[in-house]
């Protein structure tokens, strides 16, 4: 398992290319993982904690137990042959020793990468002091090295989404990269100008989250973004289609064509 996971982690890292971004359509269980992995062009997967939490009937923001989070990582990773990055929220531990132990368990479950957040609670504020958040990223890297798996760390910067200042967000991004993050996931880059500015001021690869109101995907690629994800948006997309179909069927309407989808 470790050798296979290590190879997947190396592959996942290689897919983060500025200008040719890794597009990860977020999943939340084994069946969504298989369906997305089977789509043409998909090279890696990422879970979304919001979607995983809602599928378990709990709130996002570590409403999941660490055991539930790790078991979901295990199920998703085992369902596909491509690399899986796990949204591991804040690591499910307030202390460094606990964080490192949880990362070791996550890697054993098959994760090739992870998201780690720098906000203390939900919503996206307040954040850990920058020194604490940086040490937490460094702890993830130490745990990965001890496991022999070059885990891809997508370090999330919640400053802007939580109403904080630009300079703090940039300082955090660069500090996390210096501590061992492979890419920084900056929330709040909702305009082309903000994306351009972040790319100019961050000394490494940048990941963003997108939706219909965001910068178009082709433009994000042109600007030099390395990774794009959609978070809970893919759960919303799925549920919207399901609700529309339920409405149509209940009204004795036509059978939706997708009712015959072979999975």
TrEMBL record:
InterPro entries documented for this protein: ICL/PEPM, Pyrv/PenolPyrv_kinase-like_dom, Pyrv_kinase-like_dom_sf
Pfam families: PEP_mutase
Gene3D superfamilies: Phosphoenolpyruvate-binding domains (3.20.20.60)
Cross-referenced CDD domains: ICL_PEPM
Source taxon at top rank: Bacteria
Entries under SUPFAM superfamilies matching the protein: Phosphoenolpyruvate/pyruvate domain
GO molecular function, a single term: catalytic activity
Designated name of the protein: Carboxyvinyl-carboxyphosphonate phosphorylmutase
Upper lineage: Bacteria, Bacillati, Actinomycetota, Actinomycetes, Micrococcales
């Amino acid at each position: 398992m470790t050798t296979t996971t290590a190879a997947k982690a190396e592959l996942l890292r290689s897919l983060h290319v500025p200008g040719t971004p890794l597009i990860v359509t977020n999943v939340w269980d084994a069946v969504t993982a298989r369906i997305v992995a089977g789509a043409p062009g998909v090279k890696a997967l990422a879970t979304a904690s919001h979607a995983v939490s809602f599928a378990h009937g709990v709130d996002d923001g570590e409403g999941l137990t660490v055991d539930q989070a790790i078991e979901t990582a295990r199920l998703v990773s085992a369902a596909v042959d491509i690399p899986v990055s796990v949204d591991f929220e804040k690591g499910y531990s307030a202390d460094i020793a606990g964080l490192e132990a949880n990362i070791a368990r996550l890697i054993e479950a098959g994760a090739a990468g992870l998201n780690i957040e720098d906000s203390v609670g939900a919503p996206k504020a307040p954040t850990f002091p920058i020194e604490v958040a940086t040490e937490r990223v460094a702890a993830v890297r130490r745990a990965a090295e001890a496991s022999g798996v070059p885990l891809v760390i997508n370090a999330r910067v919640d400053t802007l989404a939580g109403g904080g200042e630009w300079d703090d967000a940039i300082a955090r991004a660069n500090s996390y990269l210096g501590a061992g993050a492979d890419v920084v996931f900056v929330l709040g880059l909702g305009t082309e100008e903000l994306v351009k500015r972040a790319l100019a001021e961050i000394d490494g690869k940048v990941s963003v989250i997108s939706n219909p109101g965001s910068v178009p995907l082709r433009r994000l690629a042109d600007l030099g973004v390395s990774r794009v994800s959609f978070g809970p948006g893919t759960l919303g997309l799925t549920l919207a289609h399901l609700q529309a179909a339920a409405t149509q069927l209940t009204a004795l309407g036509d059978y939706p064509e997708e009712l015959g989808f072979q999975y």
